[in-house]
Amino acid sequence: MAQLFDKKTIFLTILICLATTVLAGLIFLNGKSGSCGIDSETIKNYAQELQNNQLYRLAIIEYSKLVADPCLAQQRRSNINYIIGKMYLDELFDYENALASFLKAKQDDKAGKLAKELDKLIVECLEKMGRHSAAQFKMEQATALKDKPADAGEIILARIGKREISLSELNSAIEELPASMRESLKQPAKKLGFLRQYVTNELLSEAAVRKGLDKDPKLNKKVAGF
């Protein structure tokens, strides 16, 4: 009996030790905000503090530690890459790394919460890198030609981000053309070609606004002279 009692005692002691170890591990993990072995909350706060003090490269290093965490939620990884990209773009003027960060953010943005904003930022990076053809292609990709009526009954032909181009807007633009051109646009193929050109002009106009060209007094003076 004494020997049996000793075995039971040893067995119970082992169980208690195991339970204590598991409990300690759970407490440790909860303290790490659900991450895989890193104190994500502390790192995030430190990164924000660095960013607020304009120490952008150091902030990016800290944010990158969060991105590297395999247990980080996909949408949160997308959000952090967006923040990193904005620092590269707006503060460090490093357009290549900004573009890379925005592409990573887009990859993890499965819900599409940042899709429109990321498309615009990707185009902006390409433009500032001098890759105008790639920027134009990306803008065309982000613009979907539609033939379905909108909720209000209006036919939407194209969308540029939140901007919608309706059939009535296109027809109004055509009405402003000389009579000879209006006549030729009665053919469906030529009208579609005019729509594509109209969309391209709107995209270029948006790009000019992003670059601040609409506020350039010299350029406005030249435009006013036409």
Quick synopsis:
This protein is mainly α and 226 residues long. Helices cover 69% and strands 5% of the residues. It has helices spanning 2-30, 40-52, 56-67, 74-91, 95-108, 115-128, 132-142, 167-175, 179-184, 188-210, 217-224; strands spanning 143-145, 156-160, 163-166.
How is this structure best described in words?
The protein is mainly alpha-helical. Helix 2 (40-52) packs antiparallel against helix 3 (56-67) and helix 3 (56-67) runs antiparallel to helix 4 (74-91). The longest helix is centred in the first third of the chain and has 29 residues, at 2-30. Residues 26-34, 145-151 and 222-226 have low confidence and may be disordered. Strands 1-2-3 form a 3-stranded antiparallel beta sheet. The chain has helices at 2-30, 40-52, 56-67, 74-91, 95-108, 115-128, 132-142, 167-175, 179-184, 188-210, 217-224, and strands at 143-145, 156-160, 163-166. Helix content is 69%, strand content 5%.
Properties at a glance:
elongated, mainly alpha, 226 residues, three-stranded antiparallel β-sheet
